[in-house]
Amino acid sequence: MAGHVCLQEAGAVFRRHFGAAPALIVADENTYPVAGEAVRAALVEAGINVEAEILPAKPRLAPDRLTAERIAARVGEMGAANNGGNPVPVAVGSGVINDLTRYAAFSAGTRFMSVPTAASMDGYTSAGAPLSDEGFKITIQCAPPRVILADLDVIAGAPARMSGWGYGDLAGKVPAGGDWLVADALGVESLDDTAWPMVQNELRGWLSDPEGVHRGNGAAIADLFIGLAVSGVAMEVYGSSRPASGAEHQIAHIWEMEDLSHEGEKVSHGACVAIGSLSMLSLYDWLLDQDISAIEPAVIPPRAPDWSAVEAAIDEAFPNANIARRAKEEMREKWVEREILAGRLAKLRDGWPALRDVLSSHLMRESQMRDLLAAAGAPVTTREIGLSPERHRATIRNARWIRRRYTLLDLLADAGLLEQAVEACFPDEAPLYS
Ligand SMILES: [Zn+2]
């Protein structure tokens, strides 16, 4: 539902889905005046008993499990005061508020309603709550909102940079699709007939008006929001984030785990994904220029690190012991013995002409993506997110350790090409650092 009167419908929508349950509005100091007050008024008008949890806006809210548990406790208290009736949290905000509320509702054993205030990320429709747990970013499977009330006037009125972040998150579906094509071609993870077209068939259209997104043009913002929402649904349909997330997200997750900050503020998810996407498209541009048909599947595996060398590399990459332990668990899921690696490389060599063609027609060049992101107001250099070239290159080398999902980074590592590719794509004078 969209339009001027959308938020006034909040009371009727709430009653239809949750009856007379009490509501706990979860907002922050920015989103409460923008939409929370209107939602509260509409709920009160409909006879709903409403309380509000208004979180501080500064410093930018962190998706922390402890905060989510505190909100869950408040939901529990409301339930006890209501003779055990199930209160319904109403998330009024963007990514972090929705993630906190999703987890709080789930752990309090209730459902929730979402009122998005910005097209800033793809998680509104998803069941997973990406939260930080003792420093490691994990996605906890909860439940999606029972109802989403998206007022496009509110969303289009969000700060332009938040729409830029959402555009960055949506742009990430281009390299993420490439990674799924790679995994499919190597027999690691097949494309899905439902989830793949849901995200990929309309993606170019959703991304087609970056200037409009930046200006807050209603139609462009609607396309962006729909693209993000559909991507979230595709992840639910498929049962994992594969349809919408590849190595560009693994790169982003590293920076999120490291609490990457710039100018005193935590760098947003979409900004990290924008830089991750440009990084991955640079690597794809490089790969498509290589003669992969000439690789020697029998020669490469004996030089590949054994598992203990992988563990040592992970320990070196992640000084935080908790992160290193989780990374080893993830990496173990996709690491293969040398004989299996040889078979995979033979498949890569033999299938390369077909894979190259399908990647060429699916992907964008890095320069094309750079123009789109810049027009949408998303970052296009590492400087804009406070990242040095050295730290950027280290992330590219380490990103694949933290998730079991097979991506281009794994293909390059398997083929013994990762280091060569990093050096070729990210010299100090690379556009990403200019
Ligand atoms: Zn994302």
From TrEMBL:
<keyword id="KW-0444">Lipid biosynthesis</keyword>
<keyword id="KW-0520">NAD</keyword>
<keyword id="KW-0521">NADP</keyword>
<keyword id="KW-1208">Phospholipid metabolism</keyword>
<keyword id="KW-0560">Oxidoreductase</keyword>
<dbReference type="Pfam" id="PF13685">
    <property type="entry name" value="Fe-ADH_2"/>
</dbReference>
<dbReference type="InterPro" id="IPR032837">
    <property type="entry name" value="G1PDH"/>
</dbReference>
<keyword id="KW-0963">Cytoplasm</keyword>
<keyword id="KW-0479">Metal-binding</keyword>
<keyword id="KW-0594">Phospholipid biosynthesis</keyword>
<keyword id="KW-0443">Lipid metabolism</keyword>
<protein>
    <submittedName>
        <fullName>Sn-glycerol-1-phosphate dehydrogenase</fullName>
    </submittedName>
</protein>
<dbReference type="InterPro" id="IPR016205">
    <property type="entry name" value="Glycerol_DH"/>
</dbReference>
